[in-house]
């Protein structure tokens, strides 16, 4: 299996647009980034779902959409979890930083008497990937005792026919999924988001509330500076062709057309705007070498009582997307400390609007 870097489409778009003088081309590539996610070769869709213990389901009704569901209570002792052995090469690694890194994920089979599910974790993928990019995370969280669900955000995967929403439209889809799963299972819901997915999750918490926990992996900060840094780091030639200001203006214009702006997409800014009692217990996983998510904005989250901030010193932004043994241990430990914080009957459903 292989991962493709999520920044490629933006960089190609920028280079081509400068050659053709067409800013519209950039806009289309930002709004329709595709899904350079995980590719598992040699298996069909049915076999892929079996490997990660997932079911293909659908949110029904008008404008329904497909999603993947992991039924933790259906795990049996003969289930063999997939293993990950991934090599990451850090180009232009800073002095003292090993340029070749190896990441492993080794999960144990479930016990014979697997307990009832503790809750539901909904996973939201990063920009320019798809739901398959969080399949390892899905199976690991099932083995920790949680039902899981994930779906393709707009502009990605099976939802790539519609443009990236940067918020509103995906919040409505997420709310429909949460409502459906709560009605069926009567369990607390935790949101788990990676980069752009963390921004969508934070926006949902600010708009709807009624969430029992939040896990954010390398959460997106201000979109425009992050996208500019990603584009420049992936293609140094850009610095010779265009100015930072040109890049930033182009990105911001796209956001304006989507009725949002860079600051409104920042996960830390969203969380810092909320009242203390409106935030669920939150785990932030950040990379010490991450130059895409603004470290100062991430650091500011440590002032929030509900937030636990965990740093992985030698990881950049893309490396933080890899769910390995270290990330699994950190997530498992945090979930273990917060298992009993809320029961379904004690949900915050009525808090989302009244407290803001």
TrEMBL record:
Domain Serine aminopeptidase S33: 116-250
Single GO MF descriptor: hydrolase activity
Record's signal peptide: 1-25
Cellular component GO terms held in the UniProt record: membrane
Alphabetic keyword roster: Hydrolase, Signal
SUPFAM superfamilies per the UniProt record, alphabetical: alpha/beta-Hydrolases
Name this protein carries in UniProt: Alpha/beta hydrolase
Organism from which the protein derives: Idiomarina zobellii
């Amino acid at each position: 299996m292989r991962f493709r870097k999520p920044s490629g489409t933006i960089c190609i778009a920028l280079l081509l647009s400068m050659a053709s003088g067409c800013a519209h081309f950039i806009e289309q590539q930002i709004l329709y980034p595709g899904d350079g996610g995980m590719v598992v070769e040699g298996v069909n869709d049915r076999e892929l779902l079996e490997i990660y213990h997932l079911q293909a389901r659908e949110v029904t009704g008008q404008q329904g959409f497909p999603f993947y569901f992991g039924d933790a209570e259906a795990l049996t002792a003969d289930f063999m979890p997939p293993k990950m052995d991934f090599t990451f090469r850090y180009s232009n690694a800073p002095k003292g930083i090993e340029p070749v890194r190896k990441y492993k994920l080794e999960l144990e089979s479930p016990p014979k008497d697997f307990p009832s599910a503790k809750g539901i974790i909904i996973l939201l993928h990063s920009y320019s990937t798809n739901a398959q990019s969080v399949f390892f995370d899905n199976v690991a969280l099932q083995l920790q005792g949680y039902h899981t669900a994930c779906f393709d955000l707009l502009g990605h995967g099976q939802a790539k026919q519609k443009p990236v929403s940067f918020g509103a439209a995906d919040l409505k889809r997420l709310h429909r999924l949460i409502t459906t799963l709560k009605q069926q299972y009567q369990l607390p819901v935790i949101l788990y988001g990676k980069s752009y997915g963390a921004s969508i999750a934070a926006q949902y918490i600010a708009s709807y509330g009624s969430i029992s926990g939040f896990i954010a992996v390398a959460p997106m900060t201000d979109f425009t500076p992050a996208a500019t840094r990603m584009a420049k780091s992936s293609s140094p030639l850009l610095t010779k062709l265009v100015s930072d200001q040109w890049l930033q203006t182009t990105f911001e214009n796209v956001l304006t057309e989507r009725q949002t702006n860079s600051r409104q997409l920042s996960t830390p800014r969203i969380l810092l705007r909320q009242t203390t009692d409106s935030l669920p217990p939150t785990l932030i996983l950040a990379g010490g070498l991450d130059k895409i998510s603004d470290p100062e904005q991430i650091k500011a989250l440590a002032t929030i009582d509900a937030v636990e901030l965990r740093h992985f010193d030698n990881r950049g932004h893309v490396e933080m997307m890899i769910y390995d043994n270290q990330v699994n241990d950190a997530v498992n430990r945090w979930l273990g400390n917060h298992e009993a914080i809320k029961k379904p009957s004690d949900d915050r459903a009525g808090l989302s609007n009244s407290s803001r």
